[in-house]
Design a protein that fits this description.
Elements: H1 2-22, E1 29-32, E2 35-37, E3 53-58, H2 76-91, E4 96-99, H3 109-116, E5 122-130, E6 143-146, H4 152-165, E7 175-177, H5 181-184, E8 190-197, H6 201-207, H7 210-230
Parallel strand pairs: 3-4, 3-5, 5-8, 6-7
Antiparallel strand pairs: 1-2, 6-8
Helix pairs in contact: 2-7, 4-7
Catalytic activity: Hydrolyzes the link between N-acetylmuramoyl residues and L-amino acid residues in certain cell-wall glycopeptides
Protein name: N-acetylmuramoyl-L-alanine amidase
Keywords: Hydrolase, Signal
């Protein structure tokens, strides 16, 4: 009887194990730092469509000036806020627009993430102006950053629109996938925009022109409207998921 008893117990154990595995549902990546890494939470899904809320983050602010142009003396924080206000005015016709800052004040990156993550069914646009860190540089042109799969289509539309405005744009080389705090951590699709290089004297003069910033804002507003209407349609194949943990306060600046 002992062999039969052993076989019966083994069969029961196998059934229990199979039932346990089946009840776990879809697999997810290993957790990192206590964060659940299910596919949806990581943004590995198609891009947003039909959204009615746009969160605008004007980069830097307060004691954090961001880049400063040696050519015009203008600060990134001021240009970003001005462009954000122009963009808000354009988008407010069709969307609920939430500004993370509307004055010259500093907001910690993780606080920006927390504020953006409070809204469901929204997208986040973080507006910046770039710099190589030295004056007179030759690097120029807009750059659009994304990380999440569901942000790729929106980022592609924005970059394509900016290339039609910016005379220095070189194809779609400015569309970049990078794990930054504001492209990776929020719970909503998010894109970080660098409108131009303040370290480039020619581009700095362009960015100092209010009518030029108006054109930049108009281009972004059109891209957002098209994304809301069509989703990812016509933006090409979505990129593959990249399993990496969220950025942390201890990560290097900009990550």
């Amino acid at each position: 009887m002992k062999p039969f008893l052993f076989a019966a117990l083994s069969l029961i154990a196998c059934c229990l194990l199979l039932n346990s595995c089946a009840s776990r549902g879809p697999s997810s990546a290993p957790s990192a730092a206590g964060v659940s890494l299910t596919r949806d939470e990581w943004g590995h899904r198609e891009g947003p469509r039909g959204f009615r809320t746009v969160i605008i983050d004007a980069g830097h602010g307060g004691h954090d000036s961001g880049a400063v142009s040696r050519t015009t003396g203008q600060k990134e924080k001021d240009l970003a806020l001005d462009t954000a206000q122009r963009l808000k005015k354009k988008l407010s016709r069709d969307f609920e627009v939430i500004m993370l800052r509307e004055s010259d004040r500093f907001i910690d990156l993780d606080e920006r993430v927390r504020l953006a993550s409070q809204r469901d069914g929204a997208i986040l646009l973080s507006l910046h102006y770039n710099s190589t860190g030295s004056g007179g540089g030759s690097t120029r042109g807009p750059e659009t950053y994304y990380w999440r799969v569901d942000s790729h289509g929106l980022a592609s539309r924005i970059q394509e629109g900016l290339e039609a405005v910016v005379p220095s744009a070189q194809g779609n080389a400015g569309l970049k996938r990078r794990r930054l705090r504001l492209t990776r951590n929020p719970d909503v699709p998010c894109v970080l925009l660098e409108f131009g290089y303040l370290s480039n004297s020619t581009e700095a003069r362009l960015c100092a022109n209010p009518s030029y910033r108006e054109r930049l804002a108009d281009s972004v507003a059109r891209a957002v409207s098209v994304q809301a209407r069509l989703g990812d349609q016509g933006t090409g194949a979505r990129p593959q998921p990249l399993w990496q943990p969220p950025s942390r306060p201890t990560d290097p600046p900009g990550s």
